[in-house]
Amino acid sequence: MTSVGAIMPARALRPWDTAFAACSPMYAPLSTWAKRFESYPQWPSLEDYQRVLQQPATVLTATGQPLRIVPQDGKPNCFEAHYAPRIYLTGELQTRRENWHDFFQFLTWRLFPATKAAINALHYPAARQRLSGAAMSGRRAPLENMLSLFDEGGAVVYSSDAGLLQSIREFRWKELFWRRRAELADKLGVVVFGHALYEKGLAPYIGMTANCILLQVDAAFMRAGREAQVGALDERLAQLFAAGVALQAPKDLSPLPILGLPGWDAGNTRETYYENFAYFRAGHERGAVHSLSA
Fold it and tell me: Does the structure show a pLDDT above 80 at 2?
């Protein structure tokens, strides 16, 4: 990985690359699914996406509809044809061909099926209220903003050390990433959720920030295999969203400058890297620490 010490555009055109998962440790959770596309010399088709969605088990929406990849349509002519309602009501996931953003969208449905379904189920009534004109002159409510922030640019941070999670809440970046650096491999994990964040990782830039849900776990969880960890995280995140109590607005998410994580940028092996206060900003305490168990 090369250093991204200079500010770079967040989005850059990038051709199909079978080795995308090797770009950064952030893609490690997608490695199982990335292997399905290693033999493709060019962009997979939407039919190829669908096959992945059905193996080993079909991904379902909150309404029990099988998730189905369909080409993106034009401008919707009614509420039911909008993006989120269409997923909720019919299971149809509108997807653009040869598009990294939509490629990672479908992969995150595969990675976090329960959580994606729970978020979509919350979007549906919120969008109906907003688009009906009954809510705040058509503006998005705080709940919708939070859901979109996490769905597009979210991550889940889990740790067996409450102090590490508190460092994130309190914006104590140098303590987290530098002074306690040696502890992170064993005591803290980050799994990117947001499909837009995965897309940005193809052309990383200083400024990339994840909006995170923080989970306290035990030491045994930290030693579990990645697949078991992601499955448990998916179940717990879905519960948190469905409960509708702890996650109500953007302030309930904790920002994390993810390029500070060891190995996520070649330049962060120097202490001075963490003295870029335009990136590693100070701030007021944000979010909350949730337990892995309900």
Answer: no
